[in-house]
Structures are given as C-alpha cells and as structure tokens.
Design a protein that fits this description.
Rossmann fold; 5-stranded parallel β-sheet; 16 helices
C-alpha cells in the first residue's frame, strides 16, 4: 500500500516529519497574479465581470438576470429534495444551532469607585457573504459547509446574509443548496463561483451588495481571493489542505481506522491522513484494510494519491510519545481511538477538533453533532480556533471618565504623550484640567 512508515521516538525526529508535511503548502505565484486581475475586473466591471467569467468556466449561456436566484426557483427546489433528506438537514441545523448558542458573548461594563465606567460592547457585523462550493459540476454541493457558516452568523445576530455558489451548466443551483438555504431562513442567493464570486461579496456589484465578512471553503482561487482581501473585509480563515491524525491503541479496529483515514484522504490529493500508534501489529492490519476499502470508493483514485504522498503510519514507543507527535503536528482533526481517551485529554494542547474514543469518527463532527467543522489546518491549530459565533461579531471598548478623573490623572497621561512626542495628545487632556 502506498503509505509511508515513520518511526518516531521523540522530539529529535520531528524536524524530518515537519519538513515532509510542509511540502503540502506550496503557494503558486501564478495563482496570485490571476486572482489579483480577477478581483480588479470585478471591482471595476461588477455584474458584467461575473457574467463573463461564469460563461467562460461554468455556464456558456449565462446572463445577468440569472445572477440572483428567485424565490420561485428556491421554492421549487423542495420538490426535488427527498423528504427524509430534509428531515436530516433540519436536525443537523438544530444540533449546530444548539452548540453555537453556548458561544454567545455578552456585553459588559464595570464601574470604579471613582465613577469611571469601562466595558466592552459585543455587536454583530451588518452583513455576511457565504461561499458554498458546488462540488463536481454542481452535483455534490457542500451543504454542510453552508450550515456550519450560516448558523454561527445567525446566532451572532447578523441580519443580512447572502449565499453564493457556482451554477451548473444550465445556470441553476443544486436544489439541495436552495432547500438548505431556506431551511436556514436565507432568501438572498446568487449563482456565481470561484474568485469572482468572492470579489463580488467584497466589493459589491449592481446586483450584489458588499459584505463585511466572507466565509466558506473553496479551491485555491477562492482561498487566494480571500487572502488578498484581508483588511478590506473580514474572513473566516485561509484554509490549507486538511488532515486527520488518529492516535490509536491495540483495541482499535483496523477496518474502522482505515475507513477514518480514507474519509480524509478522499477529500483532496493534498490531504494528510496519519495513524499514530504504539500497537505493534495495528499499522500492518490498517494497511491491508486501506487496500481493500480504497478499491471500493468512488473517489478511490484521489484517496490513493493522497495516501501515497501524505499518508503515514507513525510507530511510537508509547502513548505519551504519540501525544507529543500530535502536539507537534497540531492537526485539524484528531481522533483519540484508544481506551479511556478522557484520561489523556488534558495532555492534548493543539488540535482543531478532538474526537473521543472508538465510536466518534470525524464525520460525526463534520456533519451532525454540532461543533463547527471549519477548523485550522496545516499546524495553525497552535494559535487559531474553529469558526465560531465570534467570527461574526466585533468588540468595541467603552470608556467613561469625569472631571475628577481628568484632574487626578491628566498630568500622567500628558507625560506619557510627550514621551512619545505627541504634544497635541498631551494638550487634549490638559485643556480639561481645572
């Protein structure tokens, strides 16, 4: 099986592993320049740029009046979606909403004995744009990503949310996108894709109003566009190739572990699927299962390429060394597939999401349980977090001081200002002294 073996005995072995994993992140300067031109065109030409790019890449017969999806079209989607599927979508939305409600922060302030009032105001942004990839020709839409991005924005209190997704060849959106949007209570839906869609959400066009925050996954052109727009708009994150690390003991079922590794590998040829184990025979058994299961997958070719380049069986001497490897890797997804994972939870310092025990595979979190599946990748879990309600809010400091406060502290403030060479700052305070 094309999956490398790594022996890891301690931190002295990490540099070689780190160098190998770093090969997944290889920015293409050509993409940067292409995206820069696309964004400039959208900024200058608005709707016409969207129409031209969509005709070129998605729908040859596309026209301006097809940009905005009518509510009649959206309602028709319900007739094309299985009732049972709608029930599953509704339940997933409820679970995600219930989880994110616990993340809501409240404004606060304190009053000092001298009458000063200091605090922090939490407010939602005014408008959010959500990008939803259409998948293969628009036939495998990432509806779970729409749920994961829309729900925390709604819980945050955002009043205006727009969804945008690349159209199919006939100019329509997949009915599952439209039905899910309605289940979420979103009525503003547009048909456009790639970097030009991101540009439209940022700058606005004649049809699409500009947004304050843009969220949602996409290909290298989408990610690059979001990166170039940082500072003009807020974004969720710039996601790199995804990964799963599975820390497993001798009680782990090899067929389950292989299935979990493949569930990540089928995403993308750059996805990393890594088993870390101190169980002597588990790695060999998992490799056999990978061979059997990959042959049965519709996306088996992608999974095999991913495993060949970025899959690994990492053998460690014990659980503690395995945890050290995990903390060095800071994986997007971490499965603790061993007995009593709770006893080791406190030792895990860096991971986007942690899946506990043998019966919690990654897809449980990706689709249904409630926590967000938009997670930091390629080691950024060392310093960043999952998408949350906070992504769609902003914080304002609140400060109130009276005459007595200025009389008491004004001289100190003026001195600090003059140390920085800012005379006008000093005088601003001193004019109020009595």
């Amino acid at each position: 099986m094309p999956c490398r073996d790594i022996n890891y005995s301690g931190k002295q072995d990490w540099s070689e592993v780190k160098q190998w994993l770093a090969g997944r992140v290889n920015p293409d300067s050509k993409v940067d320049s292409i995206v820069k031109d696309i964004l400039s065109r959208v900024k200058n030409d608005g709707d016409q740029a969207l129409v031209d790019y969509t005709r070129q890449f998605d729908c040859p017969g596309f026209s301006k009046n097809m940009l905005k999806v009518s509510m009649d079209q959206a309602r028709m989607a319900y007739t094309e979606v299985e009732t049972h599927d709608l029930e599953i979508i509704e339940e997933a939305i409820r679970n995600v909403r219930n989880f994110h409600r616990r993340q809501v922060e409240e404004s606060w302030w304190t009053t000092g004995e001298d009458g000063t009032i200091l605090g922090q105001l939490i407010r939602p942004v005014d408008r959010v744009g959500l990008y939803v990839p259409g998948g293969q020709g628009g036939e495998t839409p990432l509806i779970s990503s729409m749920i994961m991005n829309a729900v925390p924005a709604q819980v945050a209190g955002v009043k205006s949310i727009a969804v945008i997704s690349p159209p199919r060849k006939d100019g329509t959106l997949n009915p599952y996108i439209l039905a899910t949007a309605q289940e979420l209570g979103i009525s503003e839906i547009y048909a456009s894709g790639s970097a030009w869609a991101i540009g439209a959400l940022a700058y606005g066009t004649e049809t699409i109003a500009p947004c304050d925050v843009i969220a949602g996954p996409g290909n290298i052109f989408v990610a690059t566009a979001k990166g170039q727009l940082v500072g003009e708009v807020g974004i969720d994150m710039i996601a790199g190739p995804s990964e799963v690390a599975i820390l497993a003991d001798e009680h782990a079922d090899p067929s389950w572990v292989a299935a979990d590794l493949l569930s990540q590998a089928e995403h993308d040829p750059l996805a990393a699927s890594i088993l870390i184990t101190w169980a002597k025979d588990l790695g060999h058994k998992v490799k056999e299962e990978l061979k059997k299961q990959a042959a049965l997958l519709p996306r088996g070719e992608i999974a095999l390429k991913s495993l060949e380049d970025w899959g690994a069986i990492v053998t460690v001497p014990d659980r503690e060394t395995g945890i050290e490897f995990v903390n060095n890797m800071a994986p997007e997804h971490l499965e603790l597939a061993f007995e009593d994972p709770w006893s080791s939870l406190g030792l895990i310092k860096h991971a986007g999401a942690i899946f506990m025990g043998h019966f919690t595979p990654e897809p449980v979190g990706d689709y249904f349980a409630g926590p967000n599946h938009v997670l930091p990748t390629v080691g950024t879990a060392r310093f960043s977090s999952a998408l949350s309600v906070e992504t769609f809010t902003k914080k304002s400091s609140l400060i109130y001081t009276d005459q007595n406060y200025v009389n008491r502290h004004g001289g100190k403030i003026a001195r600090l200002a003059r140390l920085e060479g800012l005379e006008a700052h000093a005088r601003s305070v001193e004019t109020r002294l009595k």
